[in-house]
């Protein structure tokens, strides 16, 4: 077993609700009450209209792999035992994109545009949303 | 017309040797490169009155000024992040000279990341601790294991392959072009290491689709350049190389954080280089067709791929075929990275590109491009970037 702990998300005032929701196994994103833009990553203001009047909206948790890379050489000792692992940008069905891991499959099988769904990794102190392939 | 056009020149260049372990401090390396640049220019180090740093440089402007015996430092500045700095340092120097804040501005970059164990270690991303905070947004990226810049550029390369059919062989053409020029440059870390396509393709996978030879070197070393007015340049020891235009820019959609967040841009395959390029060509009164030789920031092969498109040397999506066509080779229409670049000369964070751009226009390159009069130099993208057009002064 690795003795080096993984870096855990350190929520900010802005991103705390995102991580709290993940702890309840819900994937959420801010939606602007003024212009209705839905966006990730969480920011203090709407990137479209600068409004600070934001709501948190629950997402379907479904999307597609926009792009990915299979990490073959760990850049940090905490990830040595995970190699090879998949880093992916997932485009959610609702539009926003996020960085995640695609798990639950052979890394060699991951493809751009592959359909995926959210799963929640509770193994660390903070629950982290990850994704796994689903039948298209 | 842009008010800085041809108003300043680079009159001195200096570099230390490049290695995996210099055995001396960043300050010592910065002093050596700076003194070399000032000696090259024929300028007394005490006369330096401006210093512009890269934000990741361990050497402060005051420490360097002290070591040089500067009489009166009237201007200092800092830019970045990291590899975005070198041309931006020159941009700040031009702004300082044109506005009268300073007359003689030193732009150094000193680095000792090789002996420190690479960028990952140098950036000190906390083992076992928390990731994020301070506007970095890293809590959304680092816990997933997005730690190496290679992975960010690899994800860009993967999407480029998916969207446009770009191949590893085409990325390899970029690595091979840089390596061939390093083989001609005795100062390059890879001087004695030829590279062929089979060896490139067999390189150890780092973060797919990128392998070992898609990644820049890690280095210890320093480079520095001296900027002054065109008038003063006429009195310097070397033929002046004119800073015809320089530009910094983010383009729309600038994001917090350094590297990771660019992956969630609306279009991660178009970088700030596109907007910097438009502005640079406008300021220079020149276009990509007039460029004789280019020093293109190359932390990874896809970094060059995207810039070939964004600076207008080919259409979006055609960077792969363009690179593989031979255009970027020494005998091509756009010879690039004629000292070897970050991929094969040394990783001095792109300041070695500025030094080589000057050498080309003085006819001092180890791969001199015949008749070269216009050189493009670019610095690291994203999240925002900088670039300049150097010309042989009349
Ligand atoms: Zn809005």
List the helices and strands and how they pair.
The complex is a heterodimer of chains A (about 140) and B (about 400).
Chain A: E1 8-9, H1 16-23, E2 28-32, E3 54-58, E4 62-71, E5 85-92, E6 97-102, E7 115-121, E8 128-133
Antiparallel strand pairs in A: 2-3, 4-5, 4-7, 5-6, 7-8
Chain B: E1 8-15, H1 26-41, E2 50-54, H2 61-68, E3 75-79, H3 85-99, E4 104-112, H4 113-116, H5 119-122, E5 130-131, H6 149-164, H7 168-183, H8 197-201, E6 205-207, E7 210-211, E8 220-229, H9 230-233, E9 241-249, H10 273-284, E10 293-295, H11 301-310, H12 319-324, H13 341-344, H14 351-362, E11 374-378, E12 385-392
Parallel strand pairs in B: 2-3, 2-4, 10-11
Antiparallel strand pairs in B: 1-8, 1-9, 4-8, 6-7, 9-12, 11-12
The structure holds zinc ion.
Brief digest:
Chain A is mainly β.
Mean pLDDT value of chain B? 94
Low-confidence stretches of chain B: 121-128
Bound heterogens, unique: zinc ion
CATH superfamily of chain B: Thiolase/Chalcone synthase
**Number of separate domains of chain B:** 1
CATH architecture annotation of chain B: 3-Layer(aba) Sandwich
CATH class of chain B: Alpha Beta
């Amino acid at each position: 077993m690795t003795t080096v702990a993984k870096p855990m998300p350190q929520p900010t005032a802005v991103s705390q609700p995102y991580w709290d929701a993940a702890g309840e196994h819900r994937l959420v994103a801010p939606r602007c009450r003024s212009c209705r833009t839905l966006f990730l990553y969480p920011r203090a203001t709407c990137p479209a209209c600068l409004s600070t009047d934001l709501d948190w909206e629950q997402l379907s948790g479904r999307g597609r792999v926009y792009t990915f890379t299979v990490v073959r050489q760990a850049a940090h000792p905490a990830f040595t035992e995970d190699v090879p692992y998949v880093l992916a940008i997932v485009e959610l069905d609702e539009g926003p994109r996020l960085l995640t891991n695609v798990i639950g499959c052979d890394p060699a099988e991951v493809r751009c545009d592959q359909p995926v769904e959210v799963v929640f990794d509770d193994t660390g102190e903070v629950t982290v949303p990850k994704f796994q392939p689903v039948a298209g | 017309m842009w008010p800085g056009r041809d108003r300043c020149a680079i009159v001195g260049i200096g570099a230390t040797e490049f290695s995996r372990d210099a055995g001396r401090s960043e300050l010592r390396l910065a002093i050596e490169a700076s003194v070399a640049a000032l000696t090259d220019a024929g300028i007394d180090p005490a006369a330096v009155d401006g210093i512009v740093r890269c934000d990741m440089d361990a050497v402060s402007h005051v420490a360097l000024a002290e070591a040089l015996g500067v009489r009166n430092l009237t201007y200092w500045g800092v830019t970045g992040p990291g590899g975005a700095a070198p041309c931006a340092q020159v941009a700040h120097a031009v702004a300082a000279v044109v506005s009268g804040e300073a007359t003689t501005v030193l732009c150094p970059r000193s680095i000792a990341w090789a002996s420190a164990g690479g960028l990952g270690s140098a950036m000190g991303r906390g083992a076992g601790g928390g990731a994020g905070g301070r506007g970095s947004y890293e809590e959304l990226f680092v816990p997933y294991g997005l730690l190496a810049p290679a992975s960010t550029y690899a994800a860009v390369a993967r999407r480029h392959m998916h969207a446009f059919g770009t191949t590893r062989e085409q990325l390899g053409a970029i690595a091979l072009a840089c390596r061939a020029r390093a083989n001609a440059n005795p100062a390059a870390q890879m001087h004695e290491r030829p590279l062929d396509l089979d060896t490139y393709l067999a390189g150890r996978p780092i973060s797919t689709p990128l392998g070992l030879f898609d990644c820049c070197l890690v280095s210890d070393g320093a480079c520095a350049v001296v900027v002054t007015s065109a008038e003063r340049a006429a009195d310097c020891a070397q033929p002046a190389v004119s800073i015809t235009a320089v530009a910094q820019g983010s383009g729309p959609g600038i994001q917090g954080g350094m590297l990771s967040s660019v992956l969630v841009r609306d279009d991660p395959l178009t970088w700030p280089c596109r907007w910097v390029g438009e502005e640079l060509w406008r300021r220079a009164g020149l276009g990509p067709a007039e460029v004789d030789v280019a020093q293109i920031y190359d932390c990874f092969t896809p970094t060059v791929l995207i810039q070939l498109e964004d600076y207008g040397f080919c259409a979006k999506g055609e960077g792969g075929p363009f690179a593989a066509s031979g255009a970027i080779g020494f005998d091509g229409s756009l010879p690039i990275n004629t000292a070897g670049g970050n991929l094969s000369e040394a990783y001095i964070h792109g300041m070695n590109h500025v030094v080589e751009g000057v050498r080309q226009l003085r006819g001092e390159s180890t791969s001199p491009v015949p008749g070269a009069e216009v050189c493009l130099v670019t610095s690291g993208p994203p999240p925002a970037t900088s670039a300049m057009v150097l010309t042989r002064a009349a």
